[in-house]
Design goal:
Chain lengths: 262, 430
């Protein structure tokens, strides 16, 4: 809290090799506390691979990923399992929506809060007072999150039956339910119409301002990226080709070349 | 338009008729009789028109049914004469006092069952109820956890053999010490449950990384391995002959004659079924149950939400195996005789089929499916030779027309007081 400029996520010399393909090549980047940062690049540039390395889906071939949410020393998280990394305060959404589609909206969020509870199998069977209170608290908290995300009216709806935009929001709600300090959004507005995009833009700002969650997002929708992010990293063929505020990125010849070709 | 469609459908049916004729020709038209070393082929041409007519009508009706099924969603709200009745029943059941009365009547019916219907029906019911326990247990693994387990009979065997071996090796010392051997049953229940859990965990360790088809094949192999080991460990397990004269449970140190013993086991198994339903329901509606379901829905997202998949899978298999172990003990006590043939792949498939027919992931589904699958064949003995055929047709029909099963699960709904500023909430209602 004392030093707002300290990076809460620092990636150093990260490389990821699949067979003969170098999907990520020596990428170093950092995210500062409280900022909204975007990671952009043409299709296949390795953006989602970076997310997967950060969140433990992949073990990076080389390099390190470290977090420093508080004042304590930085902690390396590369190579840990996804559930452990989530517990440390990194939550993500997925490019191709991965909701628990046969469960209700509320249950989806309740699962996000899984680790804020303790009850094991025996407690579940006995259902003592503490467990019942815990369960009630869970329901209330999850409801609260859904209200914030504007999904309160869908509570008992099966996730699969939600409109597309609401499904994307539910993914964010579910990720927020895990109490992260850093939220990784993988194409949050893909497939949304301009109106929905605008709404989500506000939501992203709200999440940062009210919940004090730092945000790293991958997005192809340039209007969103330019409006919402304070700093942008540009990735092409697994390498970082540019970094800076939106104004600079817009006029960066390397970036234009990467997007438009020569 | 309609004429054109009809003509198309009729043509398709005719084509299928031809196919059926070709397919069934060797079975229903040709008849080979071997006399004195020479084969004589007789052609029963008379059956040909019957095949033609039946297959034509059946294929036309099937096409129609599929057509109806695919458009069923469009007019979902359409009221049929049955709708008001259905709604009235649902409304009545939603009220607590009425639900209580219904439950009491059901319990009373269950309680007088053995006296009203006699030993024959009681024994059939016991077998069916053992399957209910199995189905409820497997439902945790397949229905909630989404892990296709084709070796479930192995845990059933572990339970039964735990009791059998206890009897074989500990029983004699009971007898010489003058302790009633009927107590063994009660000792065997928790031990069998525990050992089955151990086996469940043992099985889950190698399959942690697998899902879907691969998981199914490994569990299938596991089931067969357990059976083969039992069959080939003659000195210990009695090999293919199994273990016999296993004692039925006694009533407080009192040995019961077979008829009363059956009634007694019936009540024991009823209590066990109620216990199973109670426990499974509580698990389903809890943090643990939701984590299992999340794993079924999407493993990657589940892990990204901080859920430990390894632990989740271990507890899924352990929870499922426990009930199979319990059911095994009851089976051994009821039949007083066990051998490896009672625990073949077919048993695993039957339990799985019960779940699919009843409704995967649904408790009423598991109960209903198991009862249907076990009781109907007993009361339709004359059709016994078509049993597998009927199962197959039933499976296809249910998967196509009622994919959620006959008794699908009603997901829990939560209600919130919308007006309240602080969300007070939620009286959760089932």
């Amino acid at each position: 809290m004392t030093n707002t400029n300290a990076p809460i996520l620092e990636i150093k010399n990260l490389s990821m090799v699949f067979g003969g393909l170098r999907a990520i090549d020596d990428v170093s980047l950092h995210i500062k506390k409280g900022e909204i940062c975007a990671l952009i690049g043409p299709n296949g540039a390795g953006k989602t691979t970076i997310f997967n390395c950060i969140t433990g889906v992949y073990k990076p071939t080389e390099g390190s990923v470290a977090i420093q949410p508080g004042d304590g020393p930085a902690e390396h998280i590369h190579g840990l399992k996804p559930n452990i990394i989530n517990r440390k305060g990194l939550a993500r959404t997925f490019q191709n929506i991965r909701l628990f589609s046969n469960m209700t909206v509320l249950e989806n969020v309740m699962i996000g809060r899984h680790n804020s509870l303790q009850a094991g199998i025996f407690k579940a069977i006995i259902r003592d007072r503490a467990t019942r209170e815990e369960e009630q608290r869970l329901i209330d908290e999850s409801h609260e999150i859904l209200k914030k995300m504007g999904l309160a009216m869908f509570i008992n709806e099966t996730a699969r039956n939600l409109p597309y935009g609401a499904q994307r929001r539910l993914e964010i709600a579910r990720a927020l339910a895990t109490d992260p300090f850093l939220l990784l959004l993988d194409e949050p507005v893909a497939g949304m119409n301009p109106h929905e995009t605008k709404e989500l833009e506000e939501t992203i700002n709200l999440i940062r301002d009210r919940e004090n969650v730092t945000i790293l997002l991958i997005e192809h929708d340039m209007s969103l990226v330019m409006n919402v992010s304070e700093r942008i990293y540009v990735l092409d063929y697994g390498r970082l080709i540019a970094e800076g505020p939106p104004v600079e990125i817009k006029s960066n010849p390397e970036v234009i070349k990467a997007y438009l070709g020569e | 338009m309609i004429h054109k469609n009809l003509a198309k459908e009729l043509a398709a049916s005719a084509l299928q008729m031809v196919w059926f004729i070709v397919l069934l020709f060797p079975f229903l038209v040709m008849k080979v009789s071997v006399t004195a070393g020479t084969a004589l082929v007789r052609f029963r041409w008379g059956s040909l028109p019957a095949i033609a007519i039946v297959s034509f009508i059946a294929s036309f009706a099937w096409g129609r049914a599929l057509e109806w099924n695919s458009h069923r969603g469009d007019k979902e709200q359409k009221r049929t004469p049955l709708t008001p009745i259905k709604e009235a029943i649902a409304a009545a059941l939603a009220r607590k006092p009425i639900r209580r009365v219904v439950l009491l009547v059901l319990l009373a019916a269950v309680a007088v069952y053995p006296f009203a219907l006699g030993m024959y029906h009681t024994n059939i019911m016991i077998t069916a109820l053992i399957y209910v326990i199995l189905a409820l247990g497997l439902n945790i693994v397949v229905g909630l956890g989404g892990l296709l387990n084709l070796g479930y009979a192995a845990f059933f065997a572990v339970g039964a053999y735990t009791y059998g071996l206890l009897w074989k090796f500990v029983g004699p010392s009971f007898v010489s010490a003058g302790i009633a051997t009927g107590w063994l049953f009660w000792i065997a229940l928790p031990i069998a449950g525990t050992i089955a859990v151990v086996f469940g965990i043992l099985l889950s360790l190698p399959v942690l990384r697998l899902r879907g088809d691969y998981l199914a094949i490994i569990t299938l192999a596991f089931g067969e391995i357990v059976r083969m080991v039992l069959q080939n460990s003659g000195p210990v397990t009695g090999g293919a002959t199994g273990i016999s004269l296993i004692p039925r449970p006694w009533l407080l140190g009192l040995k019961l004659p077979p008829k009363q013993a059956a009634t007694y086991i019936y009540y024991i198994v009823i209590v066990l079924v109620i216990l199973t339903i109670f426990v499974v329901r509580r698990i389903e509606d809890s943090r643990v149950g939701r984590a299992l379901e999340a794993m079924r829905e999407d493993e990657i997202a589940c892990e990204a939400m901080g859920i430990d998949l390894v632990r989740n899978k271990l507890s899924t298999f352990a929870l499922g195996a426990f009930w199979a172990g319990i059911a095994g003990v009851v089976l051994a006590a009821q039949t007083t005789y066990i051998n490896p043939d009672s625990f073949t792949l077919w048993e695993s498939i039957m339990v799985l089929m019960a779940i699919v027919i009843g409704g995967t992931g649904s408790i009423p589904g598991a109960i209903g499916g198991a009862l249907l699958l076990k009781l109907l064949p007993e009361y339709f003995r004359p059709l016994a030779q078509y049993r597998i055929l009927i199962y197959g047709v039933a499976m296809i029909v249910i998967i196509i027309f009622k994919p959620d099963g006959l008794f699908p699960r009603n997901r829990k709904k939560y209600t919130f007081d919308a007006q309240a500023t602080e969300p007070q909430a939620g009286e959760a209602q089932k």
